[in-house]
Amino acid sequence: MEKLQALDALSALSQQTRLDVFQLLIRHEPEGLAAGDIADKLGVPQNTLSTHLAILVRAGLATSERRSRQIIYRAVVPTVRGLVRYLVDDCCAGHPELGRRFDYGEGACAPGTGCKTPVTENGSS
């Protein structure tokens, strides 16, 4: 991930409603959620929500797909992984073994997220 991509993602997540939406989408991976369901679950008016969803999509943190009369939104997990890796890439002052605690691996989720593939704090399953 490049610096501008990281800034876009961090900017998108720096607003409370967008962060709530994004966390909800992460919890509903991989099936995603319809825009109306997101609005209902968060108590956000649909017109306000569509603005927030558009910002998340523009930042590469979410995707949308039309399924008949609904638009389904999903989190883009690889973007999140890339952002975390970008943020912690130089965290360990030349000791890469210390950074392993941040690498949750392909298909894994952080502890406490409710994902079906939990990992320990050091990144192992």
What's a concise summary of this model?
The chain is of the alpha+beta class and 125 residues long. It has helices spanning 3-13, 16-27, 35-42, 46-58, 77-88, and strands at 33-34, 62-67, 70-75. The protein has two domains: 3-76, Arc Repressor Mutant, subunit A; 90-125, no CATH class.
Characterize the structure shown.
There is one protein chain. The chain is an alpha+beta fold and 125 residues long. It folds into 2 domains: 3-76, Winged helix-like DNA-binding domain superfamily/Winged helix DNA-binding domain (Arc Repressor Mutant, subunit A), CATH 1.10.10.10; 90-125, no CATH class. The protein has helices spanning 3-13, 16-27, 35-42, 46-58, 77-88; strands at 33-34, 62-67, 70-75. A 3-stranded antiparallel sheet has the order 1-3-2. A hairpin with a 2-residue loop joins strand 2 (62-67) and strand 3. Helix 2 (16-27) packs across helix 4 (46-58). The radius of gyration is 16 Å and the shape is elongated. The protein starts with a helix and ends in a 37-residue tail after the last helix. The model is unreliable at 113-125 (pLDDT under 50).
Mean pLDDT: 82
Low-pLDDT parts are 113-125
Structural class: alpha+beta
CATH fourth-tier homologous superfamily of the largest domain:
Winged helix-like DNA-binding domain superfamily/Winged helix DNA-binding domain
Percentage of β-strand residues: 5-15%
Categorize the overall geometry.
Answer: elongated
Summed up, the domain count is: 2
How would you write the strand order of the largest sheet? 1-3-2
Order of helices and strands: HHEHHEEH
CATH architecture of the largest domain: Orthogonal Bundle
Number of strands: 3
Count, helices: 5
- Describe the largest sheet: 3 strands, antiparallel
Domain HTH arsR-type: 1-95
GO molecular function: DNA binding; DNA-binding transcription factor activity
Keywords: DNA-binding, Transcription, Transcription regulation
Pfam family, one: HTH_20
